[in-house]
Structure formats: structure tokens, C-alpha cells
Amino acid sequence: MSPAHALSASVVAIVLVAVACGGAAAPTATKAPVAPAAAATATPARAPAATTAAASGKATGKVIIAVASEMLKNSLDPATSTGVPYVIQASLYEPFAFLHEGNYETPVLAASWKLAEDARSWTFQLRKGVKFHNGEDFDAQVMIKNMKRAKGIGSAAFHENVDGYETPDSHTLVLRVKKYDLALVSRLSWTTSIGMPAPARYIDEVGEDGIQKHPIGTGPYKFVSLDTAVGALTLEAWDEWGGYWGFKPTVKTVVRLSIPQETTRVAMLATGEADIAGLAAGPQLREVRGATVYSSSSTQVSWLEFFKQADPTSPYSDVRVRQALNYAVDKQTIIDKVLGGAGEPVAVPLASFQNGFPRDIKPYPYDPEKAKRLLAEAGFAGGFDGGTILTASAANKTLGEAIAPYLEAIGVRVQVQPIDAGTLYRRWNPPAHDLGKDSGMGFLGSNLPGDSAYRIESFFTKYGIWGYTVDPELDRVFDQTFQVRTAAERDLLMEKAARTTHEKAYKLFLWSPKAVFGWGPRIADWRHGGIESGNAPLIQSIRLK
């Protein structure tokens, strides 16, 4: 039986397009924004108009959100974070800027910015009148203190390039750089948490451990509690928030629950234990009752990571083997039969709207005969033991079981191995980062918007903390992005890097899936409000009926 026939026989087709259980009309899916080249200057954009409820008074009510991802106890301080959901960070804290509809960056804590003619310094006019949840003021010295203490995602490359700080006045920050960095605003806004400050005196009083236990920012929601034992994060609307860049919250209390089991999240929607739930492909979507299932375009690109590709003794170190596996899998059939058509095959790690995206490169076509020839050329005519496919959710287990027969059809023997989501998350992120001990592959990917350099840096270069690729050529290309002075030159380098990831097949590139959420009957709307935040709208845009 062919893999396609086996898939048809064993996998129930799940439709992830916007549908409404019980006959209610489904919301219109939002369109992913198109990001032009990074701007050298910025002026404040008009914030989306507040709803009548938001304008009429203080926030009220409570909403419970159930999601699959774990909320780690060390993830709430942006300076040390290695992967807290951006939707949470941007609710507690605020970045320099947001990606806002058609504009590349919309000012938030940075009211405006300008790149010097010699491209060796950036001048940021910081927003005046901003206060932290504890009443402390935000200014340039606070921002510098937070930048200097940053040691989380993307901080190493940032510190390496900083040549000094200047403060002509309390709300002007001049950041001098050793090398050109046209993507600096994106780095401070989206691709790292460096531009999300905590209050200066509070940092001195409680230290990093204290910030992790009780984070304080400038965002529309303030911290109430985090119970890591049950995965419950509770936030409360901050009535004093300025509302200068988006919707003011109308929901007083938001509880985020980490619920790895998809069926449990679906059941919570049905019983009213959850008002909103993150959903994914799988038979459980057919069981959603009393809720609206909403899907929208996302920034996510999914792939299978070859954990031992840098080990010269592993078959995955051979480019021909990696290419063979990319040819072996019929991605479109899996999208059609498992994802219900809610996705598109991908060729590179970048989202289609990101700068440097190579539009002429097509995804690897399904060609099992070519895959077998490549394996034979690599010395594996009889195939090999491909190890495990790690899956951390019911949805990914279903997808892994759909992929495995295609690999076995060309002689690569694999086993689908479920792994606890929290365990996978801890092993993927520093300080562990030890998935390279495993002989096979696992579902990884990226949903971060903003400048494309971050995905290349994080997953394909020596500066990254997440990927398992080692390629001096990609390191050199990434380094060259700090040597050019125009966005056009830089985008060409990003395109070159993306092409290299495709040609050398550093991942088994899969698809760009849609983001799927279930809304309970109490939810009137939960939209981006003009602010793009990866795969989820920001929580202050939740509206109750």
C-alpha cells in the first residue's frame, strides 16, 4: 500500500478552516501583513479606535485561555527569557515597537527613531509619561540598564555590536554600534526581548529571581500570580495604562492555563471551563461543541529538525540524505488529508511576507524515486535506521504517523515517539539544548515575525540558540548583513541565506499551517486589533458579549 493510500485509510480528514459549531457564523480570517524593508525613521501611527466598551469605563469580568505550551518559571523576565510566548510578554511589558498592519514598525516605547547618515548610531526618542506598574518612571537610563543586563534570546550578538550609549536628555537614547545593523529596531521589538524593560529600582531591590517571581512592566496587564505546578498564569488589567498604541483592555482578569492535552482543551471549551483554547490538527476538532473555531494566516513555518546533522558519523550529516527525505514526503497530501487544506508547503524557514524571502524557490516536490537515488549515492541504497520522530502533542503525533510511511517507503526506518511538551521545550532551549543526543528528528519551527535575520541567526548560525545546523558559510553571510548600509543589499544576503538552507536541506521543510483557536459562547471577538503577534492576537483585544 502506498503512503498516500495508507494515509487515507488511517487518518481522518480534519478541516481547520473557519467553521462554527452550532451554526454561528465564523469570523473572517485575518490576512498576514506584508513587511517592507526596515525604515530608518518612524513617527507614531494612529492607534486602532477603541471599542465603546473600552472607552466607557474600567475592565470587568474574567476569561480563561487554555493553550498547549508550558509557562516556564524562568520565562517572565525579558532580560533572561529564552522563549516565553510573545503575547504574554507584550501584555506585561512593552517593546520599542510593534509590527502594525502595513507598517513595518509602529512606535510603542520608542516614540520615534532615526538612523545616522553614517549608520553607526541610532537615536531613539522615548515616549514620555510612561510609568511601570509599581509607579516608577520610564526613561532612557532605565532602558540602558535593561539593555545591559539582557542575556536571553539574541543578546550575545546585540552586546557584541554595541559601541556605547548616550543620553542627551532623559528621554533620548543614542545607541552607537560597531557594525551596521539595519534590523536593530526589529531586534529590540520583535526578535528579542531586549527592548522590553523592567523598572530600574525594582531590579536593584529584588534582582532577577524577584522579577521572575513577580514581573513588573509597563503593559496593559499586570502580574497577579504564576503557579508552575498547574501551569496557571493570572494577569489583571492595569487601569492606569495609557492605551497609546492599541485597544484598552475590557476584560479585568485573564488566566492562561497550560494544558498539553488537546482533547482536554476541547472538553474545557465544551464545559465552559475555558473561554478560549488553542487548537491544532487532529480528530479532536470534530468533537468541538458549543464554540466557534477560528483560523487565520500565521507566521509559522514548521519543519522536522535533524538533530544530529552536525555529527559526521550520522547519515543526516550528508546533504544527499537530507535532500532525499525532503523529496520523500508528499507534503501536499498530508496538508489536504490531515490539515484539511489549512496550510501551504514551504521551501525555506522564512514566512512569505518577510524580507529576503526567495519567491522563485519552490518546495521540494514529492519524488520518491529521486529520493531513493540520492540515498544510493550517499551509500544508503538499502536505507538506514532513522531513529525517532519526537512529537510533543497529539496533533504532531498524528502528523508524525502520517510522515513515517513516506520515509519507510524509501528505506528510512523511523519510530514516532511522543514526548512531554515541557520536556521537549526544556531540552530544546538553553541551557540544556541537548536534542542532538537523539538519533532522529523532531517537530520544530518558528512563528516569529519581524526581520528575517532572526530566524536565520537563531536556527542556522553559531549565534543561534535553537537550531542544530553548523555551517560556516551561513555564519559568513549573516556576518555580512552587518557590513551593508542599504536594505536592498541586506535583503539580498537574507535571500542568499534562505536559498542555502533550502539547497542544503538543513531541515525537512514541511508547511506553514494556519493558527486555530476555539472561542466559547462568552467571547464576542478576539482579533489582532492591527497588531500582529505571531500566531495569537494580543489579549487586550478580547471582547466579551
What are the main properties of this structure?
single chain, 545 residues, alpha+beta, Dipeptide-binding Protein, domain 1, Dipeptide-binding Protein, domain 3, 8-stranded mixed beta sheet, 16 helices, 28% helix
In short:
Among the domains are: 75-217, Dipeptide-binding Protein, domain 1 (Alpha-Beta Complex); 299-513, Roll (Dipeptide-binding Protein, domain 3), CATH 3.10.105.
Describe this structure in words.
With 545 residues, this protein is α+β, with helices and mostly antiparallel strands. Among the domains are: 143 residues, Dipeptide-binding Protein, domain 1; 215 residues, Dipeptide-binding Protein, Domain 3 (Dipeptide-binding Protein, domain 3, Roll). The strands form 5 sheets. Strands 1-14-21-13-3-12-11-10 form an 8-stranded mixed beta sheet, with helices on one face. The chain is globular, with a radius of gyration of 23 Å. The termini are far apart. About 11% of the residues have low confidence.
